Amino acid sequence: MNTTEFRKRGKEMIDYVADYIETIEQRSVYPDVQPGYLRSLIPEEVPVEPEMYEDVVKDIERVIMPGVTHWHSPFFYAYFPTASSFPAMLADMLCGAIGCIGFSWAASPACTELETVMLDWLGKMINLPENFLAGTTGCGGGVIQGTASEATLMSLLAARSRIVRWIQADNPDRTESEIFSKLVAYSSDQAHSSVERAGLIGGVTMKKVPTDEKFSVQGEALKKMVERDRRAGLIPFYFCATLGTTASCAFDNIIELGPLCNAAKMWMHIDAAYAGSAFICPEFRPLLNGVEFADSFNFNAHKWLLVNFDCSVMWVKERADIIGAFKMDPLYLKHDHQESGLVTDYRHWQIPLGRRFRSLKLWFVFRLYGLRGLQDHIRKQVLLAKEFEKMVRDDQRFEICAEVILGLVCFRLKGSNELNETLLKRINSTRKIHMVPCQLSGKFVLRFAVCARTTELHHVRESWAHITDLASELLQELPH
Ligand SMILES: Cc1ncc(COP(=O)(O)O)c(C=O)c1O
């Protein structure tokens, strides 16, 4: 493909994408295919001779689209949102075109510098304490990770190396492996599975702290566990707080937990994967109060801030903790400015070496929406969730199962878990709307997360009508 053809095909592709987004709600939100559906639709081997572009494009509708779950359909209410906007898609194209691997400042200075400045912009948008920002005299700074899972793992590994360093400073005879065997990390019993996984990968015990009736960890619960473990000769070193849990969007009490972690010399990481974007609105910012006690903080701009996947933003108060934990410096990666104190080499902040120019997406989205446009988006989706909550509360057959704070509504039919499982199965098998369940206090609960940028009140009303129709049918089938 030469540049002349690229220009033509590029314009056609933009048209295809625009049509896809514009007409997406006419497609079934959930695909009707069986496992292995795709293999029989394409050849067993790669073509030896080049094919025609038209033939490839034809296969998008024949091979790919039948197996796509349409996350950007206004009828998609599963998991949490994954963000999408045209400015972010255009920035992603430019990122692909520049195609640099920005592992160090020298590997592409703009890639590194824009990232540092965008993380400062975003830090200011959510009113992060100054010491998390790079552009101040503090020792902090921000980085784009691929996912919240990676951010949690990085924070845990940095905390692990910090505690070993601290202990060995006073007790040089204690070996790393002996210390490792005594380390204990903690997270909410509502934390995302990626937190438990970070413990597994990091080779440390991860204990679950029980939550209260609002699914939130309180200081006392963590304190009890930490004291018990210390008495048993263990070394508590890390706590991962969640702001906006996956199941019900609950918030741990970081105002209590933070000082406790600081006093116990435990690293506090905050996972706000979904809820973090909402903190750009002053009315939701109080939910982040207590972040001043944290060592690291992360959220997925690719969930709710109109920046397409992947773009998980993470800040640390002491960048030396993270850089120092994993520093490798082979000759082929060195450059003249690395010890100048003026540049960041992001390869030290993450697990892979390579990294894309993801900050372009933040730059385009911030400038083309403005803070106000992004706040409008968050507020609109929260309002839609509140409208849905009202509809549920107005129907006596249903109950709300957790406080609705942001864009997620947890609800169920009053009755057995089996009844609700059947209802969800029927909802999803019609493929008109798509939702996933969660379990809260032993109950099977339906989650309605406002996801797509294009979801409007009429979509929410239509979806509720659909849910209640299916519920009525189901209830009529029950023996009276
Ligand atoms: C609270 C929370 N943490 C972590 C994750 C994992 O996110 P990622 O896919 O970015 O690793 C999720 C995913 O929804 C989440 O809700």
Give a verbal description of the structure.
The chain is α/β, with parallel strands linked by helices. Helix content is 42%, strand content 12%. The chain contains 14 helices and eleven strands. A hairpin with a 2-residue loop joins strand 10 and strand 11. Helix 4 (109-125) packs parallel to helix 12, helix 5 (148-170) packs across helix 11 and helix 12 (359-393) packs across helix 14 (457-477). The mean pLDDT is 96. Bound molecules: pyridoxal-5'-phosphate.
Quick one: CATH class of the domain at 100-356? Alpha Beta
Q: Using the 3D structure, state the CATH architecture of the domain at 100-356.
A: 3-Layer(aba) Sandwich
CATH topology of the domain at 100-356: Aspartate Aminotransferase, domain 2
List ligands, each type once: pyridoxal-5'-phosphate
- Distance from N terminus to C terminus (CA atoms, Å) equals 68 Å
The computed structural class is: alpha/beta
Name the descriptors.
single chain, 480 residues, alpha/beta, Aspartate Aminotransferase, domain 2, seven-stranded mixed sheet, four-stranded antiparallel sheet, 14 helices, 12% strand, globular, binds pyridoxal-5'-phosphate, PyrdxlP-dep_Trfase_small
Q: What's the arrangement of secondary structure elements?
A:
Layout: H1 3-22, H2 53-64, H3 86-98, H4 109-125, E1 141-145, H5 148-170, H6 176-180, E2 183-188, H7 193-202, E3 205-209, H8 219-231, E4 235-242, H9 254-263, E5 267-271, E6 296-300, H10 301-304, E7 312-316, H11 319-325, H12 359-393, E8 398-400, E9 408-413, H13 417-430, E10 436-440, E11 443-449, H14 457-477
Helix pairs in contact: 3-12, 4-12, 5-7, 5-11, 8-9, 12-14, 13-14
Pyridoxal-5'-phosphate binds next to helix 5.
